[in-house]
């Protein structure tokens, strides 16, 4: 099985992922929309509101993990030991990529884009699950 191809298909078609953060041994998980550019296959971009609880947690601990939310059409990507940082991109830079998967994002940007910022999740390894027991690990 071509796990790189499955990874790219999953990242390009999944609309949301579960992002796990942790501060002072208190884990937290939230569902976020994201943008994945297959030209830069070890970075995920996501928008968030400035000074949200999420950004405060990230400033205290930039180590995160995530998994795509299964939709039954593609596999699942899981990443551990990732690093997160604020991006130089704006929500307008990633709007088309997110809107393609989550059309409601366009209205969010129109109404609240100035209150948002973009973060990047950088990772070197990903685990791809395609069906029961069919798991592959990728080094990107």
Automatic annotation (TrEMBL):
Annotated source species: Clostridium fungisolvens
The UniProt entry, under InterPro entries, shows: Putative_PNPOx_2, Split_barrel_FMN-bd
Q: Mind giving the lineage of the organism this protein is from?
A: Bacteria, Bacillati, Bacillota, Clostridia, Eubacteriales
Give the matching SUPFAM superfamilies: FMN-binding split barrel (SSF50475)
Q: What is this protein called?
A: Pyridoxamine 5'-phosphate oxidase-like domain-containing protein
Q: Which domain of life is it from?
A: Bacteria
According to the entry, every stretch annotated as the Pyridoxamine 5'-phosphate oxidase-like domain falls at 11-134
